[in-house]
Amino acid sequence: MKQPLLTIAIPTYNRAHELDKQLAWAVNAIDGRWDEVELIVSDNASPDETPQICQSWQYRSQNHLGVFRQPDNIGIVRNCLFCVQQARGEYVWLVSDDDRIAPHTLNRVLDWLTRKHGCRLSFLHLNGNKATPDGAIVRAGVYPFQDDLFSASGTDLFRQCADIYEDWMMLITANIYSTAVAKAAIQHWPGVSNNLAFPLYLAGYAAARGAMAVCAPVCLTDNLAYSRANWIHIIFHDIPQSYWHLRGTGMPESLIRRRIMTRISFLAFMVRFPKSFLRSLRFYWQAAQLPKS
Question: Given 3.90.1200.10, 3.40.50.2020, 3.30.420.40, 3.90.550.10, which CATH number is that of 1-98?
Answer without folding.
Answer: 3.90.550.10
